[in-house]
Amino acid sequence: MNASPNGEVLLEISGLSKSFGAIQVLHEVGLVLRAGEIHALLGENGAGKSTLIKTVTGVQGRDAGTVRLCGQDIAPRTTEEAVAAGLATVYQEVNLLPNLSVAQNLFLGRQPTRFGIVQGGVMRKRASALLREFGLDIDPGRPLGSYSVAVQHICAIARAVDLSARVLILDEPTASLDAHEVEVLLGVMRDLAARGLAILFVTHFLDQVYAVCDRITVLRNGRLVGERETAALPRMELIHMMLGRALEHSVSTRDAGRPRGDCIGAFRDMSRRGSIDPFDLDLHRGEVVGLAGLLGSGRTETVRLVFGADKADSGTAQLDGKSTRLHSPRDALRQRIGYCPEERKTEGIVAELTVRENIILALQARRGLWRPIPRREQDAIARRFIKALDIRPPDPERPIGLLSGGNQQKALLARWLATEPRILILDEPTRGIDVGAHAEIIQLIRRLCEDGLALLVVSSELDEIVTYADRVLVLRDRKQVASLEGESVTVSSILAAIASDDVAPKEQAAKEQVAREEVA
Amino acid sequence: MSGAVHTAPGATRRLPRIPRAALPQIIALVAILAIDRAVSPGFFDIRMSGGRLFGSVIDVLNHGAPVAMLSLGMVLVIATGGIDLSVGAVMAISGAVAATLAGEPLAITIGAALLIGLVCGIWNGILVAFLRIQPIVATLILMVAGRGVAQLITGGRILTFSAPGLSWFGGGSVLGVPAAVVVTAGAIVVTGLLVRGTALGLMVEATGGNARASRLAGIETRGMTVAVYAWSGVCAAVAGILAAADILGADANNAGLYLELDAILAVVIGGTSLLGGRFSIGLAVVGALIIQSMNTGILLSGLPAEFNLVVKAVVVLAVLLAQAPRLRRVFARSAAPPKATEPAPARQQGAQP
């Protein structure tokens, strides 16, 4: 860690506030970036990280506060103005043109010309020289899209830096990279910091934060929680800052020592490159397994493999002792596995169809095209679940898009319960749902597992997980890092597992060196 | 709960569903027929001659049959969020095949023409569902190439025939009703059964409404996509047979020319959104009738035929404007009840440290 804590202040944000309608998403946030430092901006979903970046770089206007770059007040209204001022941003999704060559991308809008004609040769030569500074030895004449996402990211960074940026904001640049590519990118960041740039690094991966960052700023619910030196901030404390909960508070209310049912599902060595490292998973009848971890730790990726929504690169699945192929949601449906996804609106409901149609959808898919569920049976199923789950308004013919989030979630649960699953996967079942419905859904989860269902529940709400989970698997940086059971399922033990640190910084640096050589 | 309940649940507040949904189209059809009656006083006169019914209304049905046929397939394709530009060309191909085989037993003539339509449809479906080519591009391929194929089959000539079997589809009748109308009515019933008698309708609407959610609910979206394009191909083949039988010849250049546009228009007038989702077969057919009533009315009025295209263009414009996202959003804002605040920026956990 090349700490230069007393470098010149390049970017100073103070008292920044922003509201969308009645909701204030930033409350007088401040942040200081110094030359030569890599500064992590951390916080869970909805903490205000993206909004902060957007207001600083001019994508959105701000309500109050000042942004000073190199001692001068700036108020960019567009990203172009921000770049001109020396403030460049590289987003998770590379904002370059994959069909143009690397060189064209690097010099787009400022191509070297002679008599108005672009000098391709000069441009390529300059591009090569520029990229070599970033440790990349690639052919700048080939289309950008033919290179890996990591290389594309480095090109985006190279372009930004070459546009005379002094402050570089990286918004989750590593989210779609595999471990190897991450190393390369982190190395580039270190080099840039050593050259005197200030880098603001937004990420969900704490290992990466500890590997490269000098300082950390944490936001929560749109407020500044604090700024700390990385070296002086234990992981545990960082996670407390992010999640905002006290360690002492953790009570398990499960009836301990309930006998475990037979093993329904055994998944071995499942993995998908760039998404989740190999993991094992056993699911038992009547058992609730919780998946905990920070955002981006691989929870959703895990359950999507189990459901077959994404194809696994490796691994085997056994259901009730029989080897099974789970290559698509259809396979999973046939094997009586259900999945309520996290993104309810885009992956769950079909908004314009009625509650009844949404409820019977999976059951109909299982019966197939030629065996339509008779209308009378559809009505009976819809009525039964509307009553059992108390879906309101209790009108099966209302388009589901008009229901509240909690009721949509219940209807999705009904969709899968109607298929009488053996295994049910719930991804953030209580997200975006009001408090009353929260409690109902948790009660429902308990009732379901008493009926002998095996449940796999992803949740960020640790308080909730400990109330219903018999076993909790903790994920960090796309790896399963702990399995907690029985008495040890407490909020504090989960937090401790999330915070645990098994990669020493030195080892990290060595790995990085090797990785860079291989890529180049 | 914030999903506000505006009316007492379960109360009988709804009008019967079909009539209310169909109201704009029915009104449009009645209005156009009334205008037709005004410009041509004998519009509703029907007479019997040689065992066959004649009259302007019969003309509307008879000449509207090919577009109605096409719209039966098109409505399903559009409901999945796709589009099939190739139906006009497929008409030309199937007409060419039927004309070439006109001397064979009728079953072979018809069977071969339908089969080629099915193959064309499956081809489109595979391009869209498996090769993931955008529907408008995927079907454009066959739209362009199809006429070439048809010309190869006819040898570049207008292939005429006089076989009584095939000719019946043009000049024949059942109880005085022209054969084309009977065939189309039969196809409407078959399509209706196929779609609403199986789970196809629901699956098509679900896929068109939200393809990702449908896949995660276990629907075989790709197989279903191939199926609807295949059906569109078969419907186009039937339309091709009707068109060929009407003129007792296969004209590879002109058979079904631009009819894909009429079919799309019919579906859109029928209230099915080009974005996919809810659809109505009946209203698509009503849309085809509206188009043909306009065509016939303009002919009867003595106005130059060029007006036809202009009037049609105005109708298209009106329909597309009514579907424009901004107008729809304005409408949705005033119609939809307030929704629960979704991914709330402030989560209740950690509100108090």
Largest β-sheet summary of chain B: 2 strands, antiparallel
What is the helix fraction of residues of chain B, given as a range? 55-70%
Predict the CATH topology of the largest domain in chain A: Rossmann fold
| Content of β-strand of chain B | under 5%
CATH architecture annotation name of the largest domain in chain A: 3-Layer(aba) Sandwich
Could you name the CATH homologous superfamily of the largest domain in chain A?
P-loop containing nucleotide triphosphate hydrolases
Chains forming the largest contact = A-B, 68 and 45 residues
Tell me the name of the CATH class of chain B: Mainly Alpha
First-residue to last-residue Cα separation of chain A: 23 Å
Shape of chain B: globular
Q: What percent of the residues of chain A sit in helical stretches (DSSP H or I)?
A: 25-40%
- Domains of chain B, number: 1
**CATH hierarchy: architecture of chain B:** Orthogonal Bundle
What number is the mean pLDDT of chain B? 84
The radius of gyration of chain B is 23 Å
- Quaternary state reads heterodimer
Q: Strand order across the biggest sheet of chain A?
A: 6-9-10-3-11-12
Structural class call of chain B reads: mainly alpha
What percentage of amino acids of chain A are in beta strands?
15-25%
Number of domains of chain A: 3
Write a brief structural summary.
Chain A is α/β, with parallel strands linked by helices. Chain A has 18 helices and 22 strands.
What keywords describe this structure?
heterodimer, A: 520 residues, alpha/beta, Rossmann fold, 3 domains, 6-stranded mixed sheet, 22 strands, B: 353 residues, mainly alpha, ABC transporter involved in vitamin B12 uptake, BtuC, two-stranded antiparallel ribbon, two-stranded antiparallel sheet, 14 helices, globular, disordered N terminus, disordered C terminus, repeat (chain A), P-loop_NTPase (chain A), nucleotide-binding (chain A)
